Amino acid sequence: MNLEHQCLEWKASWKDDHLREICAFANAQGGTLCIGLDDHGQVTGVPESAARKLLENLPNKVRDVMGVQVDVNLRKHADLFWVEVVVPAVSSPVSCRGEFYYRSGSVCQQLTGTALTHFLLEKTGAQWDGIPVERVTPEDLDSISFEIFQREALKNRRMNPEDFEISRHELLQRLELLDDRDRLNRAAILLFHPRPTRWFPGAFIKVGFFENDAEILYDDLLEGSLFRQADQVIDLIYTKYMRAWISYDGITRVDRYPFPRTAIREAVFNAIIHSDYSSGVPIQIRVYDNKVVIYNQARIPMQWVIEGALDKHGSKAINPLIARAFYRAGHVESWGRGIKRIADACREYGTAPQTYSFTDSEVVTVFESCGEVEPVALTNRQVQILERLRECPKLTRADIAGYLNVSIGTIKRDLAVLTESGCIIRRGSDKNGEWFVNVGKCDAGEGADE
C-alpha cells in the first residue's frame, strides 16, 4: 500500500469528524478515504455489519451535510472488510457544517482568515487584485509611476506611442484597472498609488546586507508604487549591496558580480508580481557575500510543487492584473518561462542555478555563489589573442599566428591555456564554430610574451 499523500487518507474506523477529510478532498484535487486501515496502510478491518451500514448511510450523510456525491465501496482483504470512499474534486466551495477544509499534502487544513478569502475568491472565479477599492480616484495616483510605466513599455516595445495618446482614465480601463462603475481595483492601487501601504501594509521591499544569518550590517526600505519599487530595487542591489570582482581587459576595467543581473532582476520581479499583499508581510531580500535570498509571501498551489512543474504553471499568475501590467512594461514574459530563464541565465554566466523552498504561504528563492573566481594572469600575447577573438570570433589558429607573427604551435598552446582557464569557450565545429571570450575570468598580467 502507498503512503498517505494529497489524495489518500487512512482511518482505522469511522467517526463523523472524518467528514472534514471528505470536505478537504472535495475542495482540493479529490481523493480516497479508506476506513479500516491503520496509519501504516495495513488492513485492520471493520466489522462486516458496520461496513455495510456505512455503505448504506454514508453517501446520504455526505450529500446532506456537504452537497457532494461520493462513491462508497466495500472492499475485502483476506477475511477483513474495509470501506473505500472516493471523493471527487468540486469546482465550487464545499463547507462542512459551516467550516471549510482543504487538503494540502497529507494534511487536512481548516481554512480561516486570509487563506479562506483567497480560497473563496479562487473557487468563485474572482481575482484578489481585481476587487474594487472605494473612495480612490485616478487623480489620486502617482504621475511618476505612470511615467515609469510609459518609459519601460516603449523601451521594451510592448506598447506604441499612440497607446499613450489617451487620458489616464482610458489607460487604466485598457489595463483592466477600473471596473464598470469606474472604481479602481487593488491592482491599480498597488501599481500606481504613491502610498499603497495605506491599504496593504506589506506592500514594500526590505533589502539588507547580512554578515551571517544573525548579523545585519545595513539595510534599506523601498516604498511607493510597485512600479517605483521595481524601478529602483535592482540598481540598489548592484550598487550598494553586491560586491563585484574587478579585473581588466587590456586597460578597460571589468566588474564581474557573483550573480547575473538578468537572473536577479527576473527573480525579484517575480516576487513583486506573485506576492500575497493581503498578508501584511513585505518582500525581503537578504544579500550575503556568497548568496542572495529572496523571501515573499505567496499562495503557490502545493500540487505545482509536488509535480515539480512550477514553470509549466508559471503563466497562471497569482495576481493576474499586476502580472499583465508588468508584462506591458516589458518587465516579465507571459509564457511561464521565468524560472527556466533565470536558470539559463545563471548557467550561461557560470554560476549555479537558483533553488526554491516553500511553505503554504511563503516562497524562498536562493542564489548561491560557488566562491570567488580568481582572474587568470595572462601574458601580453594572450591578451592580444583575446582582443582579436573579441573582434573576430571566427578566426582560425593560422589567422591568429599570422597576425601575431608567431608559429601555429605557439598559438595552439596559448589557446589551450585560455580554454582550460575558462577565458575562452569554443562554440560549434572546428570548421564553422567561433570563440566566446569570458572577460570576467581574465586579468592582464606582467608575464613575458613567450
CATH fold-level name of the largest domain: Heat Shock Protein 90
CATH domain class name of the largest domain: Alpha Beta
Q: Give the uncertain stretches in residue-range form.
A: 444-449
Question: In which order are the strands of the major sheet placed?
Answer: 9-8-12-13-15-14
Q: Tell me what portion of residues adopts beta-strand conformation.
A: 15-25%
Oligomeric composition of the shown chains: single chain
What does this entry look like structurally?
The protein is an alpha+beta fold. Strands 9-8-12-13-15-14 form a six-stranded mixed β-sheet, with helices on one face. A four-stranded mixed β-sheet has the order 1-2-4-3. It has a three-stranded antiparallel β-sheet with strand order 5-6-7. The chain has four domains: 8-125, Methyltransferase, Cobalt-precorrin-4 Transmethylase, Domain 2; 129-198, no CATH class; 205-316 and 326-368, Heat Shock Protein 90; 376-447, Arc Repressor Mutant, subunit A. The N and C termini lie far apart (71 Å). It has helices at residues 19-27, 48-66, 113-123, 143-155, 168-174, 186-192, 226-241, 261-274, 302-307, 310-313, 320-328, 338-349, 380-391, 397-404, 408-420, and strands spanning 8-11, 31-35, 71-77, 80-87, 95-96, 99-104, 107-111, 205-210, 216-222, 245-249, 252-256, 283-287, 291-297, 355-358, 362-368, 376-379, 424-427, 434-437, 442-447. The model is unreliable at 444-449 (pLDDT under 50). It is built from 15 helices and 19 strands. Helices cover 36% and strands 22% of the residues. The relative contact order is 0.08.
